[in-house]
């Protein structure tokens, strides 16, 4: 398949919209990461997305809309909470989970009776949705398992020849995926952290917002016994679910966690040791409170280090007491297969 490379010019977006309306697959920019879009109400098109990504088909997708009035095509849910969060954060990097209408195929929701919905901020994305005339299901436009794509070239690197077209727009402003907020029960719950934090959602709702307990639990799991931090090769996940790496670079990756100066020292020491063994090392170290910058850069840095052919990536942990820091660490831990060295 020859993948069309399109621009964000109106004629190109119109062409992309026709492809979607006819059941094809188009990757497009959003403010978070690039998405791989298909008509959310067309089962065959949605199935083709899973195929192109090499993704297990029980993984539910986010359905993208261009205006709040389109919510009623997907869900009958209405509430003060929905009104408040959509008013506060849409268009923007927040996805909400609501009960689905029968019109939404099981394929789109991975068999769940709920549907994830978001209205992206990027104008080209909303124009694509408007012109295609359908809600667009879009997971991140990467091969399953690899870091999410934040630049058009990342999409092309993964999916060229596997999809109908890519709209090559700007690099993504946010750099990590949207916050996923479950609004199907009394207590709103964050299922995936993002740059829209629990604190901000709580302020908009006027009530508490919880993080899914498993997120906090996962953040505590590490692949290494802290006492034996040096034995990198003994990678043994403590929890079976942790053995799968997501957002993963090809290189071996370790996170160094602790006070900033000790982290820098440990990275320097390890880098030297690896280089003595003839291994090429890449370092990812963000300024201490530069959370938004870390979110923006993490996935592209991982991809660039892979492209540069490094064997080992050493990354400094971020302070996860900060909501955005927590969201970035959620990805960094998965990228490293939970290999954390405490200093
Ligand atoms: O920023 C984003 O959200 C990007 C851009 C393209 O919009 N999309 C994205 O999609 O990250 P994806 O498929 O990579 O991630 C979808 C996430 C998964 O964690 C999935 O489990 C969750 O949303 N999800 C989708 N539908 C759900 C549902 N009905 N209930 C619970 N979680 C759901
Ligand atoms: Mg993804």
Outline the structure in words.
This protein has 343 residues and is α/β, with parallel strands linked by helices. It has helices at 10-21, 43-53, 80-89, 106-109, 123-132, 152-159, 198-205, 213-220, 260-276, 291-307, 323-335, and strands spanning 4-6, 26-28, 35-39, 62-64, 94-99, 114-118, 136-137, 165-167, 179-182, 189-192, 210-211, 252-257, 281-284, 312-316, 340-342. It has 2 domains: 4-211, DHBP synthase (Alpha-Beta Complex); 217-342, Rossmann fold, CATH 3.40.50. It is built from 11 helices and 15 strands. The strands form 2 sheets. Strands 1-8-2-3-7-4-6-5-9-10-11 form an 11-stranded mixed β-sheet, with helices on both faces. It is globular, with a radius of gyration of 20 Å. The N and C termini lie far apart (49 Å). Bound molecules: threonylcarbamoyladenylate and magnesium ion. Threonylcarbamoyladenylate binds next to strand 5, strand 6 and strand 10.
Write the layout of secondary structure elements.
Layout: E1 4-6, H1 10-21, E2 26-28, E3 35-39, H2 43-53, E4 62-64, H3 80-89, E5 94-99, H4 106-109, E6 114-118, H5 123-132, E7 136-137, H6 152-159, E8 165-167, E9 179-182, E10 189-192, H7 198-205, E11 210-211, H8 213-220, E12 252-257, H9 260-276, E13 281-284, H10 291-307, E14 312-316, H11 323-335, E15 340-342
Parallel strand pairs: 1-8, 2-8, 4-6, 5-9, 10-11, 12-14, 12-15, 13-14
Antiparallel strand pairs: 2-3, 3-7, 4-7, 5-6, 9-10
The chain binds threonylcarbamoyladenylate (TXA) and magnesium ion.
